[in-house]
Amino acid sequence: MSWLALSLSLYAVSVITLTYTSVSSFASISAGQLCTLQNSFEPSFVAQGDFVIGGIFPLHYNQEMPDLNCTYRPPPVKCNGFDPRAFRWAQTMRLAVEEINQSPELLPNYTLGYKIFDSCAYPLTGQRAALAVLNGLSEAESPMCSSSYPLLAVIGESGSAQSIVVSRLLQPFRIPMISYFSSCACLTDRRKYPTFFRVIPNDDYQVRAIAQLLVHFNWTWVGLVRGDHEYGRFAVQGLLRELQGTKVCVAYQEMIPLLYNQQRALEIISLAKVVVVFSAEGEMTPFLRDYMAQNITGIQWVASEAWVTASVFTGSEYYPYLGGTIGFGIRTGHISRLSNYLQTINPQKYPNNPLVQELWEALYGCSPSLSSASQLPLCLGQESLLEQHSAYMNTSSPRVAYNAYKAVYAIAHSLHNLLHCQPGSGPFENNSCAQSNSISPWQEVKFTIAGEEVNFDLKGDSIPYYDVINWQRGTSENIEFINVGLFDGTKPAGDELLIEEDRIMWAGHQSEVPVSVCSASCPPGSRKAVRRGKPVCCFDCVPCDSDSIECTFCPENFWSSEDRTSCIPKKVEFLAYDSLGIALTVISAVGACLTIAVFAVFFHHRNTAIVRVNNSELSFFILFALTLCFLCSLVFIGEPTVWSCMLRHTAFSITFSLCISCILGKTMVVLAAFTATRPGNNIMKWLGPKQQRAIIFSCTLVQVVICAAWLIDAPPYPSRNIKYERSKIILECSVGSSLAFWCVLGYIGLQAGLCFVLAFLARKLPGNFNEAKFITFSMLIFCTVWLAFIPAYISSPGNYADAVESFAILGSSFGLLFCLFAPKCYIILLKPEQNTKQHLMGKEKKEHVTASQHRDKSEGKIERSL
């Protein structure tokens, strides 16, 4: 329920006096001189009544400005381009007035009249029409200088620019104006336009609908074209406001000149795929003709309600260029008698009406009379309706015409309520009613027409409701307006727009939604880099890297997929019991078993010459240490833990140090025994069994101390290597202290090097018992393995580093086992006849007994030492 300003000037002398007081004053300037009409602007249609309603319609959509050279009185603006669609709106107003006059329930005992003028879709002509509508039914016959005229209200205008001019002109007279097609949001200002009302939603709702449409179809790069008037300016401002915070960018904003200029219009045509146009059909017509002349197709037009249902564009020649246009049209209605009423308009009934003649020329392409200035042939009465204007008779879904129809009924219902007001329940001060000779301008109005409830909000606007219109090819190759959705502004935000996408036909007769972007979406794994000086929708795609702050990085335990669209858990790798781990385990177990087997052979033959000569105690120590060396490689297999990481390097280093210490002790004994064969040398007394054990213990203790300091200061710990390969997490043992790690290896290398040097010095022992040669070969293999291990270990990642270290442990262990014990086991098991003291000592009959006796004494010392 809302308030409608209706200045019902039935006998409103106080209002009309304002008009004619100034005229009388002008007339009194020269007494005796009559008040004469200086110019004439006759209405297109006129009818008398108790109350007269003015009507202003754009019956022409273009104008030709006169020559203004100030040397003679300029002629009026010449209107061009007859618009049958607007002519239908005017006839709908006439039909509504006739229906009300014939109604026994609405305004009984009163009649309505009307005066309909052509605004030529131009504000100056609209102003002239507004001034003319204030006068009598006919300017030439009106006693304009002597009496008043009962104007009730004005129906108009179509364009917002024209409505602003007319509303301001009518405002001092408190004459209300109800627009059927002016949607500019600027007209909601009640301080500037207190007597303006409309039966069409204002553009605040339309721009909201268009913004939602652009977002819905992901059109992020659009052009804006508007007419040179307030309607276009306010609509563009509203749309830009609605697009803030969305991903939609405006490629350009252009204006169709009010006085059309072809060169300027051609500059508007742009490469943007989607173009939103806020303009009236009159301005669009010459612009689109030039657009078609350039043969530009594929543009997806988004039309405002001002031209989305314009019948002048329904011809088949427009379809290649305008087909697929989508926009928001005002709500349709039903006018039962409109079709029959339009058929009564013909030149025979209105022979002197130039508009009817223009209608006939537009519909049939012929002139109805010889008196017409048109160059068209004379009508013969057998012409068919022209295809491009068939919409004139298509009254199945009237929109703007229905608004004009509602506007007339709104005035009639308001007047009816005023005239039938009951004292004590009126809308005015003290619940009073209007007086017939002084009707106040404010009245509450609410009524139902064709099943629709009509009322106005506090701003004079109607309920917001739009149909989504799509221009599609009809059966006769012309353009048809198909309803493919709706926008209901009364629903909650986000739920207003409903579109049936499968019913839409897009530009170029395509069924797929067109794409309109400045820059295509960046592929996965890249980020947007905004171009300097360009909107945010224009960007370059830059691959993601460590400095790409706009890219989403995967967590540490994840890696980006190949197309960089998702994060995938990284594969965790370590030296597990897989094929490699099992192989190392088997080799380790075989080595340990072989060592134990050798131990068993030596223990079983411990009383034989070869075991005794090789110092059985040191041999057993070496075999025990080798067994531990083979087994410690198993610690490197499996998922690293805190304890396994600390045990890996310490167990390996201590067991190898023990093994090398035993070999070092044995080498020293062999070298000492060889040296002891020389006369006067007593070194063997310092290398007895106790001294040998002390050497082994002290050499091993040094390694134990280094390992203890390592574990206390910076022990090895399990770590996750994510840098070597982005798709994997390698579980490995960090050494903790690199210095301690290389000290451990360095000490083992020092022991092995010293052992190798001593064995090399003792290489010239007797041929059948050259233990030093075997020690030399074993140390040579040991050092070679570990020298090759260092670069391989450094260059190998994670589980491969563990595998390399395990192979080095096993390889060096096997080298020591085979070089030191394989020849002895061969003699023990396969050549028992050589397992004698005489053979090992190499005793032979010599020609010189003295020399033989001396050698026997030396070899006896060696045997006792070993």
Automatic annotation (TrEMBL):
GO cellular component: plasma membrane
Subcellular location(s) of the protein: Cell membrane
Predominant subcellular localization, coarse grouping: membrane
Membrane topology, as annotated: Multi-pass membrane protein
The organism's taxonomic lineage, starting at the top: Eukaryota, Metazoa, Chordata, Craniata, Vertebrata
Biased composition (Basic and acidic residues): 841-866
Organism: Amphiprion percula
Keyword Membrane set for record: yes
Taxonomy, superkingdom: Eukaryota
InterPro entries listed in its UniProt record: ANF_lig-bd_rcpt, GPCR_3, GPCR_3_9-Cys_dom, GPCR_3_9-Cys_sf, GPCR_3_C, GPCR_3_Ca_sens_rcpt-rel, GPCR_3_CS, GPCR_3_vmron_rcpt_2
Membership in a protein family: Belongs to the G-protein coupled receptor 3 family. TAS1R subfamily.
Protein name in the entry: Olfactory receptor C family, v3
GO molecular function: G protein-coupled receptor activity
